[in-house]
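Form 7-S
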Amino acid sequence: MLLWLTLAVLWSTTCWAGQMFGNGGGWNFSTSPDYENDITGIRVSKSLIGIFKSIQVRYGSSWSEAFGVSGGNVQEFILYPGEHIVGVYGSHKIYLRHLIIYTDFGRWATFGKDDGQSFVVYPDQLGDVVTGIFGQYGPLGIKSIGFHWGDPRVVVPTVAPQSTP
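Output:
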């Protein structure tokens, strides 16, 4: 019985941490919870060979720290007011190589090139959105990534804003 209790406790920490996609290993990272603002942007830095070196999210008008290693070419995606991330597709080899971010306004942003083992992530509960990210990084970049899900902080408008030419 004590063995089962020990195993249950050990397994529960794995489940509590959430699901990560990628090979893992290295240093852990996680965005700090923001109880007032939704994610309003995502920024990825890639190496010349396609490895994700670092990742950042923006809450309101402030960017989080960059998680990973410095350098690389930066690409960012800014969400409209009231827009949220509701799904993610990605792929990895040893390091993360590709993400497509899907929003509740029907928009998406592609980071990197699809290469390696793929994954798809959607929330368990209808209406939940990405509220944070976590994962692990190694000496060359991001090795795994996971997503925190929860209720949006800002009420969603019924119509997407019109883009100007």
